Amino acid sequence: MDTVSLTVDRRGELWARLAQVNDPELDEPVTEMGFVERAEVLQSGSVEVDFRLPTYWCSPNFAFLMLDGIREALDALTWAPAYTIRLHDHMFAEEINRGIAAGKSFSLIFDELSGDHDVETLRITFRMKAFKRRQEAVLLGLRRQGLTDREILSMDLSSLDTARVGGEETEVQKVRYREAVMQRWPGRRGGDPAFVTWEGETIPSEALGAYLAGLRTLRINMEFNGALCRGLKTTRYKEMDVVDGEPTLVDFILDRVPPRECASRPARNLRR
Fold it and tell me: How many CB atoms neighbour CB 138 within 10 A?
C-alpha cells in the first residue's frame, strides 16, 4: 500500500474511533457535536487532536470524561501511534495541556482540578442516562412496529437482536442500547430479558406507559441540552451552518423535533 493510501485509511480509522466517543451528558458523539476541531495523521504516523468545548467554563469533569474517551480511542488505533491531544479555550486548558505534556495521567490531572468531585460516580450517572435514553428509543420503535407491551417486555436479548425496530436512527439506537446493556451487565446472555430497569428490575407490562413517561422526561432534558450546546458553540465560534428554526424546549416537549441523522456520517464541517 502506498503512503497516500495508508494515510487515508488511517485517517478514516481515526475519525471512526473518535466518533465512538460521546459527550457524557448528551450521549451524542463528540464529532457530531463539533467538539473535535482537528484530527490529523501526520506523515510519521503520529496523531494530533485539537478539542474545543462550547463554553469557556464547561465543567472540568465533563472535559475529563471526553478527553479520557479520546485517549482510549487513540490507544485503540491499530498502528499504535504516538499522539497529542490539546484542549483549547477552556478555563483549565493550560493546566490540562501542561499536565498531559508532563506525562501525568488524566485521572491525576483532574483529581487536582476537580477537588471533592467524584469523577467515577459522575461517569456512572451519565452511563445511566445513556442507557435510559437508548432504551426509550428502542421501546418506542417496537411499539411503532405494532408489538404489544406484553410482547415487547417478554423479549430476550436474542429476539431483540433479530427484531426490526424502525428506521435507521432507531436501529442505531438498538445497537447502542445493546452495548449499554452489556456494559451494565457484562455476563448477560441471549436468553436474558432485553428490557429491565437500570437497577435490573422487571418492568410490568401494565406499568410500561408510566415507565416511558419517566424516560421521556429524561430524553427531553438531554435533547434540549444538546440543542443548547450546539447553539452556544455556533454563537461562540461561528463555524457551523446556522439552521433556521432551531428547536425550542416546546418543540422537544411536543415531539416536533425530527431525529438527527445517523451518527456514523462524517461531519463535513469538522475536517478542515
Answer: 25
